[in-house]
Design a protein that fits this description.
two-stranded antiparallel ribbon; 2 domains; 279 residues; alpha+beta; globular
């Protein structure tokens, strides 16, 4: 379970007159916008995401929401099912990030959750916009639909990654050094190195036994559970960038992309045309 978990209703409550108190601290409501920055209310982003998923024919089986920094940062996870994303051993998860302190742009992260252990990993990050300009709220339906359209290609790519990891054997003597390298890359907490090594040597789940790169990967994600969800996408994508090279796996999808803002062509007085951001 993630830290500072809230319900969808509580996200809405945080922006109401009544406000929201979580762990004896009042949660910050969405701040007022400026000429250069328009914050997206967390509950609005969640509502628009549900609508975009429904348009895409995807059903939400389970969802979880968490706040950090007094409500200034949000992370949500949505377990999905659909006709083209079925498997017995894993399910598709869409992550959603948002920030009111300008620490990062709102984005959609696409990942997998292993059914046997609930280990969660993300493989792609789609920024909805570089900056939250005045058009961002009105443009949410379009940019969310564009981001979610990548779901099926991600699902296929992750299946190929898993097969590649299972084919690479890792010597026990090398496991600790590989995990320490991930600590140096800020992808894994130093305090859990020993736990991850022992998880690799004696996995708690039979499905991950065998001493492969897949065994090590799940030993790592096992000990990323329950931490800061807002850091999980970057951590697991960093792990994959390292392990993909070892396994010879070339992702078929871009790790991090940005949805361009809507544009329109405006006629100029001299008869020329100019492309501008849609208002």
């Amino acid at each position: 379970m993630a830290k500072n978990v809230v319900t969808r209703e509580q996200l809405t409550q945080a922006d109401s007159d009544a406000g929201l108190v979580l762990n004896e601290k009042r949660i910050e409501a969405t701040p007022d916008g400026t000429d250069s920055h328009t914050p997206i209310p967390h509950f609005s982003l969640v509502d628009e995401t549900h609508a975009a998923l429904e348009r895409a024919g995807l059903e939400v089986e389970q969802e979880e929401h968490a706040l950090a920094r007094g409500g200034l940062r949000y992370f949500g996870g949505f377990a999905l099912k659909g006709n083209d994303i079925k498997a017995d051993d894993r399910r598709l998860v869409l992550g959603l990030r948002n920030a009111h302190d300008k620490s990062f742009a709102a984005s959609v992260c696409i990942g997998n959750q292993m059914m046997v252990c609930e280990n969660l990993c993300f493989s792609s990050d789609v920024k909805l916009a570089r900056r939250h300009t005045k058009n961002i709220v009105a443009d949410l339906p379009r940019v969310l639909s564009s981001a979610i359209s990548r779901v099926v290609s991600h699902w296929s790519d992750m299946g190929k990654r898993i097969d590649a990891y299972k084919g690479i054997e890792i010597a026990k003597a090398n496991a600790a050094d590989m995990i320490i390298d991930l600590v140096d890359a800020k992808a894994f907490p130093a305090r859990d190195v020993y736990k991850a090594v022992k998880e690799f040597e004696t996995p708690r789940h039979d499905e991950f036994k065998g001493g492969s790169l897949w065994t090590l990967y799940n030993g790592i994600t096992e000990h990323l559970k329950g931490g800061d969800l807002s850091k999980l996408p970057q951590r697991t994508m960093t792990v994959q960038s390292v392990f993909d090279k070892l396994a010879g796996h070339t992702p078929e999808i871009i790790d991090a992309v940005e949805i361009a803002p809507a544009q329109e062509v405006v006629a100029q007085p001299d008869g020329s045309a100019k492309v501008v951001l849609a208002s």
